[in-house]
Amino acid sequence: MSWLCLVEYDRAESRIQLLITMASSCTQLCLQCRRFLCSKTVASTWQYCTQVRHCIAITRVPTKILNGSFIIKGNPTTTQAKQRWKQQMFCYSDLAAKHLATQVKEDKGVEEVSTAEVVPYKSPLLPIRDALLATESQMSLDLDAAAKFSALEVISDEEAVHISVPSAIPPASTSLRDYVDKSETLSKLVQLGVNLWKLEQRPNVGSMLLRLNFNTDVAPRLLFLKEIGVEDSRFGYIITHNPFILTESLEHLQSRVNYLKSKKFNSETVASMVSRAPYLLNFSVKRLDNRLGFYQQQLNLSASSTRNIVARLPRLLCGSLEPVKENLKVCEIELGFKENEIQHIVIAVPKVLTANKRKLTQIFDFLHNIMKVPHNLIAKFPQVLNSKYLRLRERHLFLEYLGKAQYDPTLPNYISLDRLVSLPDETFCTELALATLDDFCLFQKTL
After folding, report:
1. Cα separation, 27 vs 36, whole angstroms
2. What is the pTM of this model?
3. Angle formed at CA 412 by CA 408 and CA 415, multiple of 5 degrees
4. CB atoms within 10 A of CB 204
5. Domain boundaries, the chain
6. Which end of the chain has less Cβ packing within 10 Å, N or C?
7. Residue 126: predicted pLDDT
8. Side-chain-facing half-sphere of 348: CA atoms under 13 Å
9. What would you give as a GO molecular function for this chain, any one (predicted)?
């Protein structure tokens, strides 16, 4: 029992000694902190910061130190602002010099320094009085120069007139005319006869043209068109209807021209086709080959007849095939033409393939049911299917009124369907109706 008491007594004594040691360490640390807070260095530093803030508040010129140089916020053009800025600079330099001198003395008292000469410290970030005096004239010049670019300075009308404002392209506009004077590409396209008002109505075309460079994008394509035989006067028409040809690569354009020539289209025919169908060269060689094969197989035409049709109506290679297929079915099923008659009609008038279905059936109905013209005679003069319905109706009714509506070639006083729709009014009246133009005009008013 006595042995246990001795052990507990030793443990308590060791704990008391540990607490005494910790208390002594804390006391020494507090004394050191007190001596530091009461030192002259801390006091002078605090006084220096207070004086700098007071100096800035008096001058009321907000400043900022950036990379060792002062930036003055405000209008530096007035004399009062310059003087305030200089006062702040002098005050700041004096305070900085005093602070540095006090810091050096304090360091001498705290540390044991050798007898070597102490070189005064000059901070590159803190301007001193000597540096300020040396550059005073330069600062005044800089402030005077900065006055020219002040937005708050009042200038005369003559100075305002001589200010040059660089021209800039409008950031956004609803019309291309706002960019013509600023864009070389647009101005050159206008000179070529391109209708920009048509192009700006199409989505994304205006922005595409603005991104093009005339020398590198437009000029090479124009030279290519000229080399294949397209006339200069057709450039405006082609670009107006197909501006995307300016973005096609020259290799693709050349390959499509080579394909057409390989199908025995001569150079003059290719140039004419490109001039009348601007989108022709935008289609791949595979598509052009498929279109030519479709017309040749669907109409049972020879290669020369197919070339003849396409050369006369090159948009057959560009448009959709659905209207063509529909018109062929109309001619065969609704109108009742035979296969050889359809073939003859298409060779004579290729526009029948792309004609409006309603117009085609309306003209045929009037020819076959009102004028009593048979299928073989219509197929013999297929141009009548491409005429105007109103002209055909007025002239037939006028001839019928005069008793001269005779379209059978086996009977006397025969009138050809071709001449009926192709002659001008005056010639029609004098040669076919044997009447005056005034009589025909008076008859038209009765309809």
Report:
1. 15
2. 0.59
3. 55
4. 7
5. 320-384, 387-446
6. N
7. 41
8. 16
9. nucleic acid binding
What count of other Cβ atoms lies within 10 Å of the Cβ of residue 39?
14
Q: Which two tokens stand for residue 361?
A: 């059936």
First-to-final CA distance of the chain: 146
How buried is residue 443: exposed, middle or buried, by Cβ count under 10 Å (0-12/13-18/19+)? middle
Which stretches of 38-78 are DSSP H helices?
40-59
Beta-carbon count within 10 A of 337 CB: 22
Q: CA distances (Å), 252 to each of 285, 310, 333, in order?
A: 9, 21, 41
Each as own residue / partner, the long-range contacts of residues 56-64 (CB below 8 Å, 24 or more positions apart, any chain) are 56/88, 58/87, 59/84, 59/85, 59/87, 59/88, 59/91, 60/84, 61/85, 61/88, 63/88
Alpha-carbon gap, residue 267 to 308, rounded angstroms: 14
3-state class (DSSP) for residue 388: coil
Q: Which residues contact 435 (CB under 8 A, 6 or more apart)?
A: 398, 402, 429
> From the centroid of its chain, how far is CA 390?
46
Do 312 and 350 touch, CB atoms closer than 8 A? yes
Phi, psi of 230 (to 5 degrees): -75, 135
* E-strand stretches of 16-85: 63-66, 69-72
**What's the CA gap between 29 and 336, in Å, rounded?**
118
- In tens, the pLDDT along 198-224 reads 998 888 898 899 899 999 999 999 999
Instruction: Provide the b/e sequence for 249-285 (b: ≥16 CB within 10 Å).
Output: eeeebeebbebbeeeebeeebbbbbbbbbbbbbbbee
Average pLDDT of every residue of the chain: 78
Cβ 225 vs Cβ 235: under 8 Å: yes
Amino acid of residue 40: K
DSSP string, 207-258: HHHHH--IIIIIHHHHHHHHHTT--GGGHHHHHHH-GGGGGS-HHHHHHHHH
Kindly list the distances between the CA atom of residue 390 and the CA atoms of 23, 110, 188, 430, 443, in Å, as whole numbers in the listed order. Answer: 121, 118, 44, 20, 14
